[in-house]
UniProtKB/TrEMBL annotation:
Chain segments annotated as transmembrane: none
Signal peptide residues on this chain, from the entry's feature table: none
Domain Ribulose bisphosphate carboxylase large subunit C-terminal: 2-182
Organism: Ruppia cirrhosa
Name of this protein: Ribulose-1,5-bisphosphate carboxylase/oxygenase large subunit
Keywords (A to Z) from UniProt: Chloroplast, Photosynthesis, Plastid
Pfam family, any one: RuBisCO_large
């Protein structure tokens, strides 16, 4: 990263993946990232597990690192109509477990999803108070009180020409990620 920055004069970034088979190994990876000066680590919270995610989230908050959440394997759980659960349940569990931002999919691009449902779980991730709105999949009013929010990251087959639609959909309280990790 630093070599590339020195050569180009441009700021570069990388989410160092801390996902591992044990919490101890994840923390070692986060410590290593911190020693390298990498400001963001990534965790696959579904494959890694919620308890492991909570441990990593607490370490990151205590040590000035941002925790980017990847949702590998979510489709196995949330895309089946006859079994599984909706992503909004996984989003709530993540918010309670901890993280700074998560791939939320998009309403445009290759990770296209149903607009109202996507916005419903995006609201659950980042807003402090969410009114019941069945059209968005919000079945009861939710008051998160002081629970920190999670920023949605719109990514997956998007490009700069999608920006007007993405900012209209997600507003300016989101992250737009283009081109395999380009922020």
């Amino acid at each position: 990263i630093y070599k590339s920055q020195a050569e180009t004069g441009e700021i570069k970034g990388h989410y160092l993946n801390a996902t591992a088979g044990t919490c101890e190994e994840m923390i070692k990876r986060a410590v290593f990232a911190r020693e390298l000066g990498v400001p963001i680590v990534m965790h696959d919270y579904i494959t890694g597990g919620f308890t492991a995610n909570t441990s990593l989230s607490q370490y990151c908050r205590d040590n000035g690192l941002l925790l980017h959440i990847h949702r590998a394997m979510h489709a196995v759980i949330d895309r089946q109509k006859n079994h599984g659960m909706h992503f909004r349940v996984l989003a709530k569990a993540l918010r309670m477990s901890g993280g700074d931002h998560i791939h939320s999919g998009t309403v445009v691009g290759k990770l296209e999803g149903e607009r109202e449902m996507t916005l419903g779980f995006v609201d659950l991730l980042r807003d402090d108070y969410i009114e019941k709105d069945r059209s968005r999949g919000i079945f009861f009013t939710q008051d998160w009180v002081s629970m920190p929010g999670v920023l949605p990251v719109a990514s997956g087959g998007i490009h700069v020409w999608h920006m007007p639609a993405l900012t209209e959909i997600f507003g300016d309280d989101s992250v737009l990620q283009f081109g395999g990790g380009t922020l």
